[in-house]
Amino acid sequence: MNKTIINNLPSFTKARKRYPSKIVNFKVEVPESVTAKLSGKSFLIRTFGCQANIRDEESMAGLLKAANMQRTENEKAASVIIINTCAVREGAEQRIFGQIGNLKQLKLINRDLIIIVAGCVVQQEESLVKLRKTFPFIDIFMGTNAIHKLLNLIDTKITQNKKVVDVPSDDVTVYENVPVERIAPHKAFVNITYGCDKFCTYCIVPYTRGKERSRLPEDILRECKILVDSGYQEITLVGQNVNAYGLDLKNGTTFSYILEEVAKLGIARLRFITSHPWNFNDEMINVMAKYPNIMRKIHLPLQSGSDEILKLMGRRYTVKDYLELVSKLRAKMPDIVLTTDIIVGFPNETEAQFLETLKVVDKVNYEGAFTFIYSPRSGTPAARMVDNVSREEKGKRFDCLKELVDAQTETNAAKYVGKKCRVLVDGVSKKDINFLSGYTESDRVVHFEGPLALIGKIVEVKIIESRVYSFLGELVNE
Ligand code: SF4
C-alpha cells in the first residue's frame, strides 16, 4: 500500500519555464480534522535563509493560528514542527540535513508529531529524493508556492494517515489574503515580488521560487496601511529583485511608484531588499532622496569586479555601470550606506580578475559585505561549467577579500563613535539581558542600557564604542 500521496513533485524542466501568473484572493478554511486534532496545541517553525523565507514563515504561522494553534520555541511541546529551508549554498543545505536528523528522536517519543519540511531545498528534485530517503519520518513536503495549502496538507496527513508531497514547480499564482502572524510587533517584511527571472548562472532561486511576479500595488498598500495603523515603525519591501517590481504587470507600475506610495503612508522607516544594479534607475534614486523616511541604506550585490566574470554570471551590468550607479547614489545622498554580496572562485576566475574585484571593493568602500566562495548549485548553468580554480586557491582569495572587507567595515564602523543615532529598539540584547538592542537607520546593531518600555520605539543613542559588527551606546533622548 502506497504510504505517500504525491500531489506535485518538483521538476527542473517545469521550473525553467515561465508560466503566466495570476492573482487569487485566498480564503482560509480550517478542516475539521485539524480543529479536532490540533486546536489549542502548539507549533514550532525554524526558518533558514532570506527575508522571503521569513515572510513565508509568517504566512505558515498565520494559517496555524487560524486553526487555533499557538507558537512555541520548545520542540517537545510542539504538535507541528516546520523546517523552512534555504538552498542558496551547499553549506546551507547541509545544515538543514543536520537539523532534520535531530527531529527523529522527537517523533519516536511523540508518534502524533507532524513534521513538515518546506522552502527552497524541497523545490530541488535531487534534494527532495535525498530527504525522503534519508528521513522517512517526515510527514509533509511543502513547496514554496504551496504554503496556502498547509492546513489541507495536514488534513490529508491526519485523515488518510499518509505522507504528503506537494511541491509544484509550475504554480506561479500570487495568493493574496493568506493570514499572517508577524514575528516582530514593530517592524515587518512586505513582499512586493515573488520569484526571479534574472537567471544569474550560479543561482538556484529562479528554479525554486519560479517566475518573477509582482503583487498589485493596491494589495501592497493595503497591507502597509494596516501595519502603519497598527503602530509599526518599520516596513521592509521584500523581493529577490525589488527594482524589477511592476515590470510584469505591464501597466506602467514601477518600483519607484510603489516606494513613493508606501513612503507617503507615513511609516517612520522604510527599507527595501534585495536590489539588482541592472534595474536600479534614476527615478528610484530621486524617490529615495525625496523622502527622509526611506532609509539611506542599500544592499547592492556586486558579486564580481571583473566584467568577464559578470558576463559568465549573467549579471547584465558592467563594473562601469555599477560604479556609475554608486556615484549617482552618493551624489544625491552623500550619507548613503552601501553593503554588498561578493562571490570569489567562480569557475575559471583568474588571479587578475580576482584582483579587479578587490579594486572595486576598495573603490566603493562598503560599510559591510557578505562574502562567499562559489558554491555550485545542481541544475544551474554555472554548475555545468568546467572549473579550473582549485579549492585551495578559492580559499586564499576568500581570505584575502575577507581581510579587505573586514578592514573597511572596521574603519567605517569607527566613524560612528561619538555620533548620535536614531535607533529602533528591538528588545533585550541577546548578548546581555541588562541591555536593550536595536538598529540604527543604517541597519547597524546597537546595545545600550534603557527601560523595557522603550522596546518598539525609536530613540536617540550616542555611540560610545565600536565593536565592528555592533556598537555600544548610551541613551540620549527617549
Ligand atoms: S537576481 Fe540573480 S542572484 Fe538574485 S535571486 Fe535573481 S537569479 Fe538569483
Question: Would you kindly provide a written description of the structure presented here, covering whatever features stand out?
Answer:
The protein is 34% helix and 23% strand. The chain is built from 15 helices and 22 strands. The longest helix is centred in the last third of the chain and has 24 residues, at 391-414. The radius of gyration is 23 Å and the shape is globular. The protein is an alpha/beta fold. A 7-stranded parallel sheet has the order 1-8-7-6-5-3-4, with helices on both faces. A 5-stranded mixed β-barrel has the order 18-19-20-22-21. The termini are far apart. It folds into 3 domains: 4-173, Rossmann fold (3-Layer(aba) Sandwich), CATH 3.40.50.12160; 179-414, pyruvate-formate lyase- activating enzyme (Alpha-Beta Horseshoe), CATH 3.80.30; 420-475, Nucleic acid-binding proteins (OB fold (Dihydrolipoamide Acetyltransferase, E2P), Beta Barrel). Strand 13, helix 10 and strand 14 form a beta-alpha-beta unit. Helix 2 packs across helix 7 (150-160) and helix 14 (351-364) packs parallel to helix 15 (391-414). Bound molecules: iron/sulfur cluster (SF4). Iron/sulfur cluster binds next to helix 8.
